[in-house]
């Protein structure tokens, strides 16, 4: 499905962490269950001005953000003022031809754009599947051979609906738990629109798997730290948040993502939210 939320603050945190994971873990195979388009024409609206466009304004004043791989790739693609690169394009730019790719999306326009970008970058081992991403990724992994493959794979699961189920009854969270239990590298994105739901996917996934997990959760709050009911459609409403869950990554990767999350919260302190009030980002970490 085409992504209508590209370049918003949730994308900033997701892509900031994802690119760093790929740079540090260096997988030989990378898969996405819900890729979207390779890139989207940039919009200059309040959500993007708080999202990627604000990130570009504040990143270079903070060493860890300014030196991040995400910042470097945005610069490579022209500072995101003309178009915004999606997760698949960022992954291909970061890993290049050192990895093979499985990129899934049901939308034919998105699938065509992914193929065009992989060709433009000279990626020779890139399969774009216009099919259900979760089933396709599971089949792709089941076809793997050799005991070393688990540690060389990163799967990015970014579901449109985390609770919808496949024909065999599996939800996106069930798929994520299976990947974690089987030792695959996992990057799982989730969102929410109520403060009571902060870190909800981490707690749910913790009940489904015995594997080691790390979660970095970001929530927008007002300048006093208060948050009411949020709105995922308008992703900058206090009480709206999202998070990244990592499984089967090294300690250095966890520590780097935590440092980036803390730096992002610091850089956004005292921000003016799109509706005109002052706000900030609350960053929290859970791990086991």
From TrEMBL:
Q: Which domain of life is it from?
A: Bacteria
What are the BP-aspect GO terms?
A: rRNA base methylation
Extract the GO molecular function terms from the UniProt entry: 23S rRNA (adenine(2030)-N(6))-methyltransferase activity
Q: Name one GO cellular component term.
A: cytosol
Where does the UniProt annotation place the signal sequence?
Answer: none
Which keywords label this protein? Methyltransferase, Transferase
This one is known as 23S rRNA A2030 N6-methylase RlmJ
Q: Which organism is it from?
A: Actinopolymorpha rutila
